[in-house]
Amino acid sequence: MSRLDDIAAIRAEFPQLSRLIHGKPLVYFDNANTAQKPRAVIDAVSGYFTEHNANVARAVHTLGEEATSLYEAARDKLARFVGARSREEVVFTRGTTESVNLVAYSFLRPTLKPGDEILVSRMEHHANIVPWQLIAAETGARVVPAPITDTGELDVEGTVALMNERTQLVGLVHVSNALGTINPVATIIAAAKARGIPSLIDGSQAVPHFKVDVAALDCDFYVLTGHKLFAPTGTGALIAKREHLDAMPPFMGGGEMIRRVSFEGTTFNDPPHKFEPGTPNIAGFIGLGAAVDWLEAVGMDAIAAREARLRDTMRAALGEVDGLRLIGTARERAAVFSFVVEGAHAHDLATLLDHEGVAVRSGHHCTHPTMQFFGVPATVRASLSFYNTEDEIAAFVAALAKVRRMLA
Amino acid sequence: MSAHPSTLYSETVLAHNRAPRHCGCLADATHRGVAENALCGDQLALTLRLRGDLIEAAMFDGESCAITTACASMLTAALHGAPRARVGELRMVMTAMFRGDATAPGEFAAFAELRHHPARQRCALLPFDAALSALQPKE
């Protein structure tokens, strides 16, 4: 018996899911963009402001101690949730983008030389491309794209073949936000490790959907964002091996990240605080802790099983639509579907679907190179979560047929 | 809160999208410009033939959404025989209309509903920007 068996009760915990859009029940299929928040998260955030509001790691009064306890408890929860080796290996950031930039500037840039290579796949989000391009341009290194196949899967052999003595880091998205592909990250991490190359895995789209064990993966860096994990925006994390965090210089300076400051020199705090300058998004991270608690209570295995059923139903339903081409047909995939429809532009479809109450994303999904590979400027993307239903899939397909008639 | 989007996809807009006018490239163009919509990757090329300051002919080329296509169809029609300054004037009226401060002339008024769709306003402005790029002095 899983709590997900009573899906109406689960949905009732997400207030926004009962909204009407243009008079129609909301069908929220934009979960890869951001996830809706359960009442538990909303209450945790609001509870911080109504009961515990104070700064963290500074004040010794009761409120300060409460805020610090709640904030640091969120770190423990996230560490447990993703299987980090220790809480000290969990650095709180504003999100995946900041996490990647932290690694780029603090870990890689200080040692990067002309001719060095950073290997990232052709299906990366811009957040796992552009930071590397910036430090490559400064140092004379270059970003090398790892190949993907026509089905939107990583070409594992081709990727491993590109690992050489010049490769300083391998970056790979765990689950592609544009294609839905689940990548064989363990294989790539092991191949990189065997060659002494550090690896970074972008888990933004993985952690909301299935159990991730960072320690077992044994990557050097794992990055994620909170808002796709049912937590507030402006929260995220870098999970990194302690040896790296000890060796890395701070990314940004300020309060909280120091041990002692004088004009002759400053000594820095220990990880993870060394990388968390200034007053953080306390309420947001308390919300992240609540999100993780909520997900663990429901169970990630139950979530993965339900989403697998929704994925198969959605895949079959999309297969019935004439003139619809799926972009990305990987065997191992999440319930994330990008597609184009003959004779209908992605933006027109998305605007008209909204009129039917269906929220999808249209555009390039911050993955220009992926779109270029498939020769499409933009796609419609329907991304599902465990709180979606078979009825919503049916409503989506009916809405799609209706809006296509309008554009024909 | 956005309004009923079917008023955005009016019969005027849908008809232009189904059968756009002046689609293609002018063989004897004197000016050519391209504009891109970063949100969706759409590219629109506009070719113009000018005699002095007068636009004699205009055509557009590119695959784009219904809003961009319909607006490009209207704009190329509106520019035939118009002075070159008309492009900038019309664009200003369009952006004023998106703020609710004006009504654009003729069929362009069909885009008034974009006031409630800020993310799609760029779609209607794309043909204007391609035309402005065409008219910009080239080095």
Instruction: Give me the CATH fold name of the largest domain in chain A.
Output: Aspartate Aminotransferase, domain 2
Helix content of chain B: 25-40%
Second rung of CATH, namely the architecture of chain B = Alpha-Beta Complex
**Rg of chain B (C-alpha, Å):** 14 Å
Instruction: Please give the order of strands in the largest beta sheet of chain A.
Output: 4-10-9-8-7-5-6
Beta-strand share of residues of chain B:
15-25%
CATH architecture tag of the largest domain in chain A: 3-Layer(aba) Sandwich
End-to-end Cα distance of chain A, whole Å, is 47 Å
Strand-pairing-aware structural class of chain B: alpha+beta
Query: What is the number of strand segments of chain A?
Result: 17
Please tell me about this protein's structure.
The complex is a heterodimer of chains A (408) and B (139). Chain A is α/β, with parallel strands linked by helices and 408 residues long. Chain A has 2 domains: 3-30 and 299-407, Aspartate Aminotransferase, domain 1 (Alpha-Beta Complex), CATH 3.90.1150.10; 43-296, Type I PLP-dependent aspartate aminotransferase-like (Major domain) (Aspartate Aminotransferase, domain 2, 3-Layer(aba) Sandwich), CATH 3.40.640. Chain A contains 14 helices and 17 strands. In chain A, a hairpin with a 2-residue loop joins strand 1 and strand 2. In chain A, helix 2 packs antiparallel against helix 10 (282-298), helix 3 (62-82) crosses helix 10 and helix 12 crosses helix 14. Chain A is globular. Chain B is built from 4 helices and 3 strands. Chain B has 139 residues and is of the alpha+beta class. Chain B has a single domain, classed as Sufe protein. Chain: A (Alpha-Beta Complex), CATH 3.90.1010.10. Chain B has helices spanning 11-18, 66-79, 86-99, 121-135; strands at residues 31-36, 43-51, 54-61. A 3-stranded antiparallel β-sheet of chain B has the order 1-2-3. The interface between A and B is medium-sized, with 18 and 21 residues.
